[in-house]
Amino acid sequence: MDGPPAVALGVEKKHGNVMSRPPRPVDEGLPNMGDISLIFYLGAVMVTGTLAIFFLAGGGLAQCELLSTDSSPESLAMRDGCLLGNQADIDAWEIYADGHFEHAQTMTFAVFIVFQLFNVMNCRSNEQSVLELGFFSNRAINLALIISSALLLFFVQLANADIPLLGIEIGQLLSTTTLTQNDWIVIVLVSSSVFFIEEFRKLLVKSKFFAIRSQ
């Protein structure tokens, strides 16, 4: 997730009027306060989205009354039996909850990685939009995104495939399970929010919307 994109960012071309700026103060930290603020700002977006995905995907199931949201007779009977202490229904609930937790865990794992991949595009420049830089202008980043995405799909979509000679499933290596097409759509929509939010911030900075106007 971090290795290939980080190396690719290292070969990003310089942007803007870097050479015309004055030197930084010798006592300025690295990262400086602006960098730290940006890290916390984008980090807050990714943490919020990741936790939301985990909860909405079923990772928050912990009680019998949260067993199911449907109203089928089978579901209602199992939930009522669980609440009354019926061991068979409690066991059924535990299987149901474990399945939802594995699904939520995989969704969280995937959205966290895709968040980072979208954020790589943000990190190409703190000021210039990706639309100005060009989505595909850095070939190293393009290759890094392909490699990271391929590894993610390998460990998730092939989670039920057996590893030859070892006799274990690929999903057991990282505790993942397969996801549906709708799951991936949700993951991409949520994780892309960090990209659009940062693009909006750059637009505001460039427009000097919050700049103090001289009289």
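(the above was protein one; protein two follows)
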Amino acid sequence: MISKNIFDNTEVAFSLKSDSQLERAYFLFKMIANEPLVRIGTAATRFALNAKLPVEGLIRATVFDHFCGGVSEEDCLPAIDKMFTVGVCSVLDYSVEGKASENQFDDATARLAKIIEFSDKKEAMPIVVFKPTGLGRFALFQKKGEGKEFTTEENEEWNRIVGRFKTLCGLAKSKDVEVLIDGEESWMQDAADDLIEEMMELYNKDVPIVYNTIQTYRWDRFAYLKDSHKRAKEKGYKLGFKIVRGAYMEKERERAKENGYDSPICADKKTTDDNFNNCQRYILDNLEDISIFIGTHNEESTYMALELMETLSIAKEDNRVWFGQLYGMSDHISFNLAKSGYNVAKYLPFGPVKDVMPYLIRRAEENTSVAGQTSRELGLLKKERKRRKN
């Protein structure tokens, strides 16, 4: 039987944190727990950066260093190597958002190719990640998904996006590095799903290299998973899925309301949790055809996965099952799972401080909205501070 207190071991959870890092984490989560303070802080940070005030040093020493690995790949190496000493792998995530020119998309492709090459040389980095809109314009994905006709120029632009996907997925295949492709807003996701399925058909013949993302706060995703499985079996390729709850809920609901269509988001948290757990169960039941990266900070869903693995006699180290959390969050899950022998990887964001701020602000806002999770983090940090003082 799986122990129900596996995640309570704070000595394991925070074993890599010095006393000063533990204090910083406690201070940050205390701040994040205060919603008005987060609103004021994020607004002030945006203003200071736009006004080019000298605040990067302060940001770097606090929130950036807690949630990010560094400003470059090389800068992340100490964090990568340190985590790997206790069995936790890293997924380098170049968290620079909002780029929109062809040159920027080409630069991002070159950067990601460099990360794949970098990962190939490090046992601690078996997986890479990118966003579809890191390689092409959001509006073009949206137009493609809506079935609207492209102009000649747009066709050429789309072909360049397909070329970038092939460059990265083909390189990853040659290096045996797995690629997680992030999910985004629903109104561009159909085109991304179709393109990622094309990549799976090309590169997942024997083992999954390319993984799509299922955001289970969308009520239609369990049906999508089963349909994808059917198509893959018919065409003879393997599937890879990262499953998460989702990151754009407010934006999705607002757009649905403004445009007068039914929201794609589940009615409540319980429905989302059930959807996540159903997807997880379906994939673990069909592991011969589908590999899974379980991206969650939810303890109940993680326990469920562990129990299913035990029931289905799936080995802890089976490469078809990975667990993942964000760097700087849910260390009690990541490090205790790794200590127990499971495959675990931390998403390790990096990039110039100014460019990574949208990511960091989203993290702060998400933590504020998930009050139970923030209080859980605080409780565990408090417990470890007390343990170290005794």
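Reviewer note on protein two: The chain has two domains: 1-68+355-390, 69-350.
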